[in-house]
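Summary for the steering committee. One of the milestones for this cycle was to obtain a three-dimensional model of the protein with S-adenosylmethionine bound, which we needed before selecting residues for the alanine scan. The sequence and ligand used are listed below.
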Amino acid sequence: MRTAEAERPQEGYALGRTPQEYERLRAQARVWESATGRLFDRVALAPGATCLDAGCGPGETMRLMAQRVGPPGRVTGIDIDAPLGAQAVAMLQHTGHRQCNFARVDLTAGEPIPGAPFDLVYARLLLYHLPQRVAVLERLWDAVAPGGHLLVQDYDLHSASVLPALESVDECVRVVTGAFSAAGCDVRVGARLPELFVQAGIGTPDGTDVAGRLDPLSDAQRQFTGVLRSVLPTAIAHDITTEERAAACLAEIAQDAERFPDRPALWPLLIGAWKRK
Ligand SMILES: C[S@@+](CC[C@H](N)C(=O)[O-])C[C@H]1O[C@@H](n2cnc3c(N)ncnc32)[C@H](O)[C@@H]1O
């Protein structure tokens, strides 16, 4: 297994920017669609509302927003990855969601957020990656209109495991957790959201939510190995594993998934917090 030049770690983001990684993000988004939808219900996202998806990635949540706000609403996606955002908007427009637009914004650089303020400002799996998470939360809160909501969902990786444990999966979790932590991510940021809201001057959240997934290993292994492949250049750059060890780990997970297809695999928890302005 060779680390291609295009897959080398980029300053400030531990995951890859490859077509395979974008497909993994889309698959992950489908898994969490109902967990996000139920929080849109909690904040009463209604037809005609204006929404911001910060760190929108492939735009799957923008699609959920567009379905709810309808043609009179407006959905803005922002992300540092301009090609991915362009793809997302092309897909959304092609499927009739003409109220969607995208702008490239680096949320750590103090760039203005176009279209602010919004009725709903939403971010999923974004703060996890940003050491400047409190400052970014402050910016997101600034972009909320009076009476609107800030809604954040993020991972707590602590739960990711298989029971009974398998060495192959434990090694995968070790490498993934080590790579993210070395890159400045907070792998428990989901559980820290209430504390971060307070630090950002937003105050105690109006509500919190915890979503989980327990899938057979035969299904879950695709995400476990997909994340491992995606963070591998970061993990190698920080001496957390080698290409050879990672290749062996991936092969062992594939074998274990054939031997123990029904063994329950617990995903990271997806934790939500929201506040009305
Ligand atoms: C793990 S993906 C999550 C995508 C999407 N929110 C979802 O849940 O499917 C994280 C996203 O945050 C974006 N991102 C990372 N750093 C950023 C920054 N400084 N400013 C804006 N977006 C950023 C990445 O480009 C990526 O699309």
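Key point for the committee: DSSP finds nine helices and ten strands in the chain.
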